[in-house]
């Protein structure tokens, strides 16, 4: 009988091919913030070309710059536009002002420009201006009504962006609670979001969490690097990174108010590549590790412990450095791209960096180191932390369990080598995936032995 593929195997092959192709296309859950507090930015058309050369699926603007919105027309890229804090009073006080705002900033461009969300104000609830807080929900409602009148109510959402300071409790994540002083406003706000299926948008920054707790283990936890993890004392769930912990704290706070079904969107998160001499954490290595590992985490679709199986839409801060921003040096150094549109550091966002097959004849690329193993002299404690981390990320650690092909020799070093390499191979084979708090290295020597086969080889 001929060995013909079954329908199920053909469907599986097509499914895997679709996944592979999708990695070279835009990914809707990965967005970027396009700030403009700078005097050296490329022309909007050039920025649009840059964005189209990446797998970035969405871009968030802090205003509604018509040149940028037009430049992104017919790109398919989702666009978030913003009404400024200064617009809130007029939007709240006069429905006609909201109609005029929509007529000016949305209708001339939609649907060619894929506007998906309007954010009304930025971090209003943690400002001292009580009047502005009281005007926020009426302003949002008027903008929502103006969209409805233009038959766009179900197509473009309305929200507002919050800092993590809206929470008074976030550790452990299951105990997350909003500031009681904001409860009345939040109830109105969340009811509006729920009624219109709009997201709750938040700005979690593990960078700031590290600055308030600058221990090496906290840095690893913030950078998605191997660490022993933190167990939530409320529900027993293990957290291996700060991003998930912060997002789940917001989910818990929403749940505590009865709005657990409101979608969470991360409006900003990022890590600076440089800063002032007295700032803890800014560096190219840390920025590359945070953003690169975050992107890998989002692409894995593993989700968070409280929201598994899907990735939260996340806008990384930022597209470019902004040289006119005030504050410490780090404020001007969050850009993943330089203003000449080359990468500041590679986190795998450019479509050309995705490993896709080529049909053109090419000179064979030189073979590079293909396996990730521990460095010599690393402590058993560090190696065990590496094992715990790698095996918590969804890889198959069965071979290093008793009876497995790689269980013998039964040493921490041997088990660490297998699990660290498998994590590296399945996480994209990026250099930062073989870091493990600087306890790992790449080798061209195949570590496989007997029936214990190490995935990998030339990349």
UniProtKB/TrEMBL annotation:
<dbReference type="GO" id="GO:0005975">
    <property type="term" value="P:carbohydrate metabolic process"/>
</dbReference>
<dbReference type="GO" id="GO:0042973">
    <property type="term" value="F:glucan endo-1,3-beta-D-glucosidase activity"/>
</dbReference>
<dbReference type="GO" id="GO:0005576">
    <property type="term" value="C:extracellular region"/>
</dbReference>
<dbReference type="InterPro" id="IPR044965">
    <property type="entry name" value="Glyco_hydro_17_plant"/>
</dbReference>
<dbReference type="InterPro" id="IPR000490">
    <property type="entry name" value="Glyco_hydro_17"/>
</dbReference>
<comment type="similarity">
    <text>Belongs to the glycosyl hydrolase 17 family.</text>
</comment>
<keyword id="KW-0326">Glycosidase</keyword>
<dbReference type="Pfam" id="PF07983">
    <property type="entry name" value="X8"/>
</dbReference>
<dbReference type="InterPro" id="IPR012946">
    <property type="entry name" value="X8"/>
</dbReference>
<dbReference type="InterPro" id="IPR017853">
    <property type="entry name" value="GH"/>
</dbReference>
<dbReference type="Pfam" id="PF00332">
    <property type="entry name" value="Glyco_hydro_17"/>
</dbReference>
<keyword id="KW-0732">Signal</keyword>
<keyword id="KW-1015">Disulfide bond</keyword>
<protein>
    <recommendedName>
        <fullName>glucan endo-1,3-beta-D-glucosidase</fullName>
        <ecNumber>3.2.1.39</ecNumber>
    </recommendedName>
</protein>
<feature type="domain" description="X8">
    <location>
        <begin position="370"/>
        <end position="454"/>
    </location>
</feature>
<feature type="signal peptide">
    <location>
        <begin position="1"/>
        <end position="26"/>
    </location>
</feature>
<keyword id="KW-0964">Secreted</keyword>
<keyword id="KW-0378">Hydrolase</keyword>
């Amino acid at each position: 009988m001929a060995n013909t593929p079954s329908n199920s195997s053909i469907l599986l092959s097509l499914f895997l091919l679709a996944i592979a192709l999708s990695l070279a296309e835009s990914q809707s859950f990965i967005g970027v913030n396009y700030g403009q507090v700078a005097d050296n930015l490329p022309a909007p058309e050039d920025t649009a070309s840059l964005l189209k050369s990446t797998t970035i699926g969405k871009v968030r603007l802090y205003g509604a710059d018509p040149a940028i919105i037009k430049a992104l027309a017919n790109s398919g890229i989702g666009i978030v536009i913003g009404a400024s804090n200064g617009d809130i009073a007029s939007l709240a006080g006069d429905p006609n002002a909201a109609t005029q705002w929509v007529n000016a900033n949305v209708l001339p461009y939609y649907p060619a420009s894929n506007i998906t969300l309007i954010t009304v104000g930025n971090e209003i609830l943690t400002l001292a201006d009580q009047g502005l807080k009281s005007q926020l929900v009426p302003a949002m409602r008027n903008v929502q009504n103006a969209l409805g009148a233009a038959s766009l109510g179900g197509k473009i959402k309305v929200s507002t962006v919050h800092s993590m300071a809206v929470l008074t409790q976030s550790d452990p994540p299951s105990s997350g609670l909003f500031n009681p002083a904001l409860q009345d406003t939040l109830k109105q706000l969340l009811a509006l979001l729920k009624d219109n299926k709009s997201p709750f948008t938040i700005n979690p920054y593990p960078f700031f969490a590290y600055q308030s707790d600058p221990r090496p283990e906290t840095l690893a936890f913030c950078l998605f690097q191997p660490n022993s993890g933190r167990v939530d004392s409320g529900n027993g769930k293990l957290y291996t990174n700060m991003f998930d912990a912060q997002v789940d704290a917001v989910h818990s706070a929403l749940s505590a108010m009865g709005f657990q079904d409101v979608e969470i969107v991360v409006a900003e998160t990022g890590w600076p590549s440089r800063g002032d001499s007295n700032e803890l954490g800014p560096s190219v290595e840390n920025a590359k590790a945070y953003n690169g590992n975050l992107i890998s985490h989002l692409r894995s679709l593993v989700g968070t412990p409280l929201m598994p199986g899907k990735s939260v839409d996340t806008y990384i801060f930022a597209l470019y450095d902004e040289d006119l921003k005030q504050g410490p040096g780090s404020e001007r150094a969050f850009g993943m791209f330089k203003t000449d549109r080359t990468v500041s550091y590679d986190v795998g966002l450019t479509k050309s960096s995705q490993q896709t097959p080529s049909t053109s004849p090419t000179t064979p690329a030189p073979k590079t180191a293909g396996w990730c193993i521990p460095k010599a002299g690393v402590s058993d404690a560090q190696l065990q932390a590496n094992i715990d981390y790698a095996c918590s990320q969804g890889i198959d650690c069965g071979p290093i369990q008793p009876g497995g092909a790689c269980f013998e020799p039964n040493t921490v070093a041997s088990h660490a080598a297998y699990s660290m390499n498998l994590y590296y191979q399945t996480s994209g084979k990026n250099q930062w995936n073989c870091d493990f708090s600087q306890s790992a290295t790449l080798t061209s020597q195949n570590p496989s032995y007997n029936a214990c086969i190490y995935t990998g080889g030339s990349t």
